[in-house]
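Colleagues,

For the teaching module next term, I've prepared a clean inverse folding example: a structure given as tokens, and then the sequence designed for it. I'd like students to try predicting residues themselves before seeing the answer, so please don't circulate the second half yet.
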């Protein structure tokens, strides 16, 4: 059985716990933290008071060791539980072959970053596959989860505030979890958690800020208004990377248009762009022209080379970037 929705998978665990759970679970989620969190939640459904869990790395174990553990109950008679994280392709294929015969003892939880392709695994096990989940779908799921967490403590967490929190923390699952605990402590005497509370507790992630600044400069030609430490080249190179990514997006859009790729297929090439934003960027890319993006990439290359051969502060070089990129824009 294969699930592509977390809520449906959780419903399966509730309905099957503790005596009718499958012996093989495959959890495919790109984010390491969330993958482990869901695996351990599934293990808790077994209702074993003190489970003995074998945490195995896929690159450091072989099939023989896995089967030996699964067939070796401990002295108390408890069945072994294995969490095998990120097995390589060869080991996964061997496990699939092993699934030709269902396990009779032990429980095997397999964690993957990529989409598992195995009809045999689906026949004898349960797969949760969130690898095709779009970023905005994931963020919405996380937002609802945060609101549910607040409700469990008899608090209301507005959808605007939960969305803002995810945005400020750059959709980092582990950071969101830890900051949520801080936020709940901060709002211990409040029944309603709002955007102001999120801003007071959750510091905006720098990479998210740089990405927004790069978007504004490349697509809207809006100059950033953030003071920069003259010696902060870490900020400079992070901003340079974000600018380059925006220019590459525009250049790729022109390449797709030139190749006559239907717009309905563009979402495959830009999985992180929401449909509405993708359409806006496509219109803007056509308006700005292919030369704008290619010339912009050349400018960034020259400035990065210049920064490595001259002793100038980061803020002066950033001013040079703003001046050259804005001069590159010719209204059409």
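(Answer key — instructors only)
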């Amino acid at each position: 059985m294969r699930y592509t929705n977390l809520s449906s998978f959780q419903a399966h665990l509730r309905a099957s716990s503790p005596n009718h759970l499958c012996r093989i679970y495959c959890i495919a989620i790109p984010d390491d933290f969330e993958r482990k969190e869901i695996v351990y939640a599934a293990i808790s459904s077994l209702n074993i008071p003190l489970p003995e869990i074998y945490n195995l790395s896929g690159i450091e174990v072989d099939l023989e060791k896995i089967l030996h553990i699964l067939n070796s109950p401990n002295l108390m008679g408890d069945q072994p539980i294995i969490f095998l994280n990120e097995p390589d392709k060869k080991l996964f294929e061997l496990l699939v072959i092993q699934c030709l015969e269902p396990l009779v003892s032990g429980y095997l939880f397999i964690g993957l970053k990529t989409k598992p392709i195995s009809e045999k695994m689906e026949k004898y096990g349960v797969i949760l596959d969130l690898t095709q989940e779009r970023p905005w779908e994931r963020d919405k799921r996380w937002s609802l989860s945060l609101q549910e967490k607040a409700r469990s403590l008899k608090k209301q967490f507005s959808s605007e505030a939960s969305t803002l929190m995810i945005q400020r923390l750059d959709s980092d699952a582990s950071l969101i979890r830890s900051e949520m605990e801080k936020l709940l402590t901060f709002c211990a005497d409040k029944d309603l958690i709002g955007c102001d509370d999120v801003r007071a507790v959750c510091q905006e992630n720098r990479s998210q800020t740089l990405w927004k600044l790069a978007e504004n400069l490349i697509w809207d030609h809006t100059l950033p208004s953030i003071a920069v430490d003259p010696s902060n080249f870490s900020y400079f190179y992070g901003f340079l990377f974000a600018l380059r990514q925006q220019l590459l997006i525009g250049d790729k859009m022109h390449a797709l248009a030139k190749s006559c790729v239907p717009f309905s297929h563009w979402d495959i090439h830009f999985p992180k762009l929401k449909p509405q934003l993708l359409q806006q960027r496509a219109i803007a890319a056509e308006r700005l022209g292919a030369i704008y993006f290619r010339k912009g990439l050349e400018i960034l290359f020259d400035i990065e080379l210049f920064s490595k051969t001259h002793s100038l502060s980061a803020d002066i070089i950033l001013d040079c970037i703003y001046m050259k990129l804005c001069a590159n824009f010719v209204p059409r």
